[in-house]
C-alpha cells in the first residue's frame, strides 16, 4: 500500500513540475528575452518540485528497519512486511516453542488406575526405583519414539527411561525397527513395530492423542469414560497428555493401518512445557495495542485452555474453537466464529489456511506463525507470515515474510512495536519532504514572476538536497518511538499515508516558510546587492528548513519536547548543515559559483533569526492540529 500511495503522489507531483516548469520557461523567455536564464529557472523549478527524496526514504527506512528487526531476533525476508507488521490486528501464534519454552519433561504418569506425580514423587525416588506399575508405560513410550530423538517430547521419554529403567529388561537397544506408522490427519497417533533378535514375534508400540489411542484399543464406554476423566485432570494443569498402547504381531505381512493391530491400553503421560515468563506481559501489551492474540495448537482443548489462561488470553469457553468443530463450519460461519475466538485447539496444519482466510475476509490484518511444511500455505496467505528459525522447515521459511531466530513470541511483539515506530517516522519524514518543497518551489518560481532577480538556480537546489536527503532519511529514521506507540489501536492499512488533514497541514507549514523567506528576500533586495540579497534569503531558507525538521519530528507535541527527545543523528545533520551553509557563504570559490555576495555577520544573524521565526508559525499549525485531532 505504501509503495502504491507514494507512486501516485510522485506521479502527480512530477506532472505538476513538468507543467509549471514549461510554463515558467515560456513566460520568462517571452517577458525578458533571456532564454538561457529561462531554461535555468525552469530546471531549478523542476528540481524543486520533484520529490526525489521519496525513493531514498523508501529504500533507507525499510533497510535500516530490517537491521533493527534483526537485533530483536527477527529476520526480514520480504521488506514490505515491515510496513504491514505495524498495522497487524490479529496475531495467530503457535503454542509449543513460541509461547512455551519447548523444554518438555514428564510430570505425571497414569497406569493401571494409579497416578504418579513426577514433579513431587520422582524427585524423591532414587534412580532405578520407579514403581513396577509404570515400567511398561515408560518402556512403550520409548519404543513408540525414534531411536535418536530430536523432538523435546521424545527426548523426555528417553531421559526418563535412562534414569529409571537402566539395567532392566525394559530398554531394548538390540531390537530392530521393522515398520513405522506415521501421524496422519485421520489418526493422531504413531506406531512402531520392533523385532527382537530371537523369535518371529514382533512388538508394536503406539503413542499419540488419548482419543486416537483409545480408538485403536477398542475400549468399552466405561473404560473410555475413566480415561477421559484422567486426561481432563492432567490437561487442566496445562500438561500435554499422550496415551501409550502395546501390541503383538506374528509374521512379516504387516497391516496397512494401525487399526488392524490388536492393541492394549498401557497408560497416560503428562508432559509439562513451561510458559515463557515474559509471555503474559507481551500478551497484555498486545491487548493494550489493540491486537488480538489467537493461540493455535494441536493440543487437547483442556490443555490449550489452561495454557491460554496462564498466558492471559481469554478464558471463556466460547473463545475456544476445536478442529472438529471447524470441520462442521462453512466459510461464512467460520468467519463469524473467529471474530470471538482466542484459542484454537486440535488444529491440523492444513486448517490454519482456513483460519487465515476467515480472518482476512473479516477485514483483519493477520500475522501467522508456523514451522512445518504444511504451514506454508497459511504463512503465504497471511499478511505477515512468520516462520520459526530454530525448529522451522526450509519450506516454511521460504513461504514466510519474517523468521524468528529464537522462536520467541515476545520478539514478534517487539517487531510490532518497531514496525509502528518505523511507520510513524516514515510519515513524519514524508510530511517534512512535502513541506520543505513548498518554499523551495515557491522561491524558484515567484521571484521570476514578480520581476525580481532569480533566487534559486540548479546549484542552490543541489546544495539544499545535501541537507534535505540526510534529514529525511537518517535523522527521521533514528527518531525514538513515541511513548504511546503501543497504547494506540492499529492503523488502518488501507488508509492513505497522507490523509487530507496531514497533507494540508504539511502544505501550511511550507507556506509559512515560503512567506518568511519571500519577505526576507523582498526586504534584503531593497538594501543589499543582488548577491548579498540572494545569500541573505538562502541563509533564511536553510535555517527555516532546519526549524521545519524540529517541527515535524515533534509531531503534535510542543517544540520543547522535541528538543528534549534524544537523537544524536539529528544533531549531526544539523551541525553539518550549518557548517555547509557557513562554507557556502564565506568560502570565496563557493561564493562565486553560487552567485552570492559577501554577507556581513550581523546580516547572517538576522537571516538566522528570520528562519527561526518560522517556528512560531509551525507551533500555530500544530496547535490547530491538536485542536482538530478528533476530527482528523
Features:
single chain; 632 residues; alpha/beta; 8-stranded mixed sheet; 15 strands; 13% strand; disordered C terminus
Task: Give a verbal description of the structure.
With 632 residues, the chain is α/β, with parallel strands linked by helices. It is built from 24 helices and 15 strands. It has helices spanning 2-32, 35-49, 53-71, 80-85, 118-124, 135-143, 152-164, 210-217, 221-235, 279-288, 301-311, 323-327, 331-338, 351-361, 376-381, 394-399, 409-449, 458-477, 500-527, 530-553, 559-564, 568-586, 588-594, 601-627; strands at 74-76, 90-94, 105-111, 114-117, 176-181, 189-195, 201-208, 240-250, 263-272, 292-296, 320-322, 343-345, 366-370, 384-388, 402-404. Strands 1-15-14-13-2-10-12-11 form an eight-stranded mixed β-sheet, sandwiched between helices. Strands 4-3-9-8-7-6-5 form a seven-stranded antiparallel β-sheet, sandwiched between helices. Helix 16 links the parallel strand 14 and strand 15 (402-404). Helix 1 (2-32) runs antiparallel to helix 2. The longest helix is centred in the C-terminal third of the chain and has 41 residues, at 409-449. The chain is elongated, with a radius of gyration of 34 Å. The two termini are 20 Å apart. The model is unreliable at 628-632 (pLDDT under 50).
Amino acid at each position: 500500500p505504501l509503495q502504491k500511495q507514494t507512486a501516485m503522489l510522485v506521479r502527480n507531483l512530477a506532472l505538476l513540475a513538468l507543467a509549471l516548469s514549461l510554463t515558467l520557461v515560456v513566460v520568462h523567455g517571452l517577458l525578458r528575452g533571456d532564454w538561457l536564464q529561462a531554461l535555468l529557472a525552469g530546471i531549478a523549478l523542476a528540481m524543486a518540485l520533484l520529490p526525489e527524496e521519496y525513493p531514498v526514504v523508501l529504500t533507507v527506512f525499510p533497510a535500516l528497519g530490517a537491521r533493527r528487526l534483526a537485533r530483536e531476533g527477527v529476520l526480514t525476508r520480504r521488506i514490505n512486511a515491515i510496513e504491514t507488521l505495524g498495522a497487524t490486528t490479529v496475531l495467530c501464534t503457535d503454542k509449543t516453542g513460541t509461547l512455551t519454552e519447548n523444554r518438555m519433561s514428564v510430570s505425571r504418569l497414569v497406569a493401571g488406575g494409579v497416578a504418579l506425580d513426577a514433579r513431587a514423587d520422582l524427585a524423591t525416588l532414587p534412580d532405578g526405583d520407579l514403581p513396577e506399575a509404570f515400567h511398561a508405560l515408560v518402556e512403550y513410550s520409548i519404543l513408540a519414539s525414534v531411536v535418536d530423538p530430536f523432538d523435546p517430547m521424545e527426548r523426555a521419554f528417553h531421559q526418563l527411561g535412562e534414569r529409571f529403567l537402566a539395567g532392566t529388561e525394559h530398554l531394548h537397544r538390540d531390537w530392530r525397527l521393522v515398520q513405522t506408522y506415521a501421524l496422519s490427519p485421520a489418526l493422531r497417533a504413531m506406531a512402531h513395530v520392533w523385532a527382537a533378535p530371537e523369535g518371529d514375534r514382533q512388538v508394536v508400540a503406539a503413542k499419540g492423542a488419548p482419543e486416537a489411542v483409545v480408538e485403536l484399543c477398542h475400549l468399552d464406554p466405561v473404560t473410555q469414560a475413566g480415561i477421559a476423566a484422567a486426561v481432563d485432570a492432567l490437561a487442566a494443569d496445562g500438561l500435554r497428555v499422550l496415551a501409550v498402547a502395546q501390541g503383538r504381531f506374528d509374521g512379516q505381512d504387516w497391516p496397512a493401518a494401525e487399526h488392524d493391530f490388536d492393541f492394549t491400553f498401557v497408560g497416560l503421560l503428562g508432559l509439562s512445557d513451561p510458559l515463557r515468563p515474559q509471555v503474559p506481559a507481551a500478551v497484555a501489551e498486545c491487548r493494550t495495542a489493540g491486537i488480538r492474540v489467537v493461540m493455535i495448537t494441536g493440543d487437547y482443548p483442556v490443555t490449550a485452555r489452561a495454557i491460554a489462561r496462564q498466558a492471559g488470553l481469554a478464558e471463556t469457553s466460547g473463545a475456544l474453537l476445536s478442529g472438529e468443530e471447524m470441520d462442521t463450519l462453512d466459510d461464512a460461519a467460520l468467519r463469524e466464529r473467529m471474530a470471538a475466538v482466542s484459542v484454537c485447539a486440535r488444529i491440523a496444519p492444513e486448517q490454519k489456511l482456513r483460519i487465515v482466510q476467515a480472518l482476512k475476509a473479516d477485514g483483519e490484518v493477520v500475522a501467522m506463525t508456523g514451522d512445518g511444511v504444511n504451514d506454508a500455505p497459511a504463512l503465504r496467505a497471511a499478511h505477515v507470515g512468520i516462520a520459526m528459525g530454530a525448529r522451522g522447515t526450509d519450506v516454511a521459511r521460504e513461504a514466510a515474510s519474517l523468521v524468528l531466530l529464537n522462536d520467541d513470541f515476545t520478539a514478534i511483539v517487539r517487531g510490532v512495536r518497531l514496525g509502528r515506530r518505523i511507520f510513524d517516522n516514515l510519515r513524519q519524514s514524508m510530511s517534512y519532504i512535502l513541506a520543505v518543497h513548498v518554499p523551495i518551489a515557491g522561491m524558484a518560481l515567484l521571484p521570476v514572476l514578480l520581476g525580481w532577480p532569480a533566487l534559486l538556480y540548479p546549484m542552490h537546489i543541489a546544495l539544499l538536497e545535501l541537507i534535505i536527503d540526510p534529514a529525511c532519511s537518517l535523522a527521521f529514521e533514528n527518531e525514538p518511538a513515541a511513548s504511546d506507540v503501543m497504547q494506540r489501536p492499529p492503523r488502518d492499512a488501507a488508509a492513505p499515508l497522507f490523509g487530507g488533514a496531514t497533507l494540508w497541514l504539511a502544505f501550511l507549514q511550507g507556506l509559512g516558510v515560503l512567506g518568511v523567506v519571500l519577505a526576507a528576500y523582498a526586504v534584503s533586495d531593497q538594501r543589499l546587492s543582488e548577491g548579498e540579497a540572494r545569500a541573505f534569503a538562502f541563509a533564511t531558507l536553510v535555517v527555516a528548513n532546519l526549524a521545519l525538521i524540529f517541527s515535524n519530528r515533534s509531531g503534535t507535541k510542543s517544540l520543547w519536547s522535541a528538543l528534549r527527545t534524544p537523537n544524536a543523528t539529528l544533531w549531526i545533520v544539523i551541525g553539518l548543515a550549518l557548517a555547509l551553509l557557513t562554507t557556502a557563504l564565506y568560502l570565496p570559490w563557493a561564493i562565486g559559483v553560487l552567485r552570492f555576495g559577501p554577507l556581513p555577520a550581523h546580516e547572517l544573524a538576522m537571516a538566522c533569526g528570520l528562519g527561526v521565526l518560522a517556528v512560531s508559525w509551525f507551533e500555530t499549525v500544530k496547535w490547530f492540529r491538536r485542536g482538530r485531532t478528533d476530527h482528523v
